[in-house]
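TL;DR need structure tokens for one chain.
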Amino acid sequence: MNEEIKVLGEIFEQSTKNFPNKLALKKGDTEYTFAQLKDAVIKLKNYLLGLGLKKGDKFSVIGENRPEWAIGYLAIVRAGLVCVPLDPMLKEGEIIHVLRESESRGILSSENHLYKIEGVKGELKNLKWIIPLNSIKELDVGEDIPAGQIDPDSLAVLIFTSGTTGTSKAVMLSHNNIISNVKSLQSAIRLDENDTMVSIIPMHHTFEATCGFFYPLYCGAGIYYPPSLKPNDLQATMKSARVTCLIAVPLLFEKFLHAVYRKVTRSSMPTKILFNTISGIGSVFKFLRKPLFARVRREMGLEHIRIAIAGGAALPAKVAQGLELFGIPVLQGYGLTESSPVISVSPLKNSKNDSVGLPLPDVEVKINDPDTSGIGEIMARGPNVMLGYYKNQQATDEVLKGGWLYTGDLGRIDKNGYLYIIGRMKSLIVTQTGKNIYPEELEEKLIKSEWIEEILIVPRINPETKKEEICAIIYPHYELLEQYSISKGITLTEPDIQLIYKDEIKKCNENLPVYKKITRFEIREEEFPKTTTKKIKRHLFIERGIKV
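>> reply
TL;DR here they are.
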């Protein structure tokens, strides 16, 4: 399907031919059919070229998820320009850094972020044009300006992996990098013109751009954008979209399950008993789950959902099992911005909750220098692997060797080819006796506790012994603690809470070798700081060794 598509700005062409009047993009009262989408993209492409921009010039886009953001991105790459998506959460100093380093000639900005751009434009000599996204609707460009032939292997997108001036690297992805990844996804995630999706992850993120933006348009599926990520707005959008495929980060799925559990705790005693009974039913009764929890899915706007896809972070096993309990098949994938981003996806049939699945077609995966347990650094090779880091040959040479991308992730591959992520090489803790401790392994054990909302395992120096210890930093499930206090008619004191978590640590340590045992813990009063894809910013707790 769509084999003739070779450049990113034409990703929706086949869908336009086959389904011109079908809905492509919608947010509130603003909607575009595929035919209208093409018309809007071409108009903006002509406008950009009419400014005198040349092939290879950089042009940025910033804003919340919306149809105009998508149109802007597509028009930039269709004009032969290089798109630089910006994280709308960046501060002014970080925006200056990205725009300056990328040498962006202009930027398409939503009205909510125009003040930021106007505030920094004096610092940027290259930035000549600031275009409000709302103005896209008013463009009237009569003459079609051809972009000329675009090399599929040329740079299409420049993505800054971090906004901090000291550590940011800009990933260079070609048209072919992303299109090859989109085409490979067909074998793992089947979408067609009957599917609808709701865009939740920020569009500047490569996972959302490839899987929740380019791929649906490629397949003819419709994309809905909620007014906000508030529960009521999200549920209303999912209901109106009759969403069939939902892509999200694990934290969102976890919050969905918490919302369901809250509903159950407020329900009648027979409903609670039924819920608890079904929760313990084995796989032989899976066929019962869908009808039994149809009402819950309907209330959540997931009545028509046939598949959920988790990415951007590791999916806890308890979350995967919880979704399956409600008759929602869940897939999880693995990848990096540097790989466009998908490397592997768990198959819908024969999936394993603790695995990130099988490599996509055209993608090779192997483990570099595995230890006795088969664990080593994950390497990937394929047409989806980046061109390199922009103006940073040293960083490029560190991760691209002999055509292989060294991911910096630790993992193993089982005899059936399934890939398992163990953790990041940077977070690996090596004991004084040379033993390896994988924090994510311990975190996976502790997060199963109902009392723990978030967990981070880090090394800490004992001030008395001056030796490194394994420390668990815990963000408690405060709502559950409150419910427990009310049900028991007591007030939990700090020693009471400490005792609860001391007991959870003890359970976790029971079957662990001595060198892996957690020897201390800390309680947090606030959630951990996170990235836009809701990954805990681990480096804040390891590299600086501070409490945040």
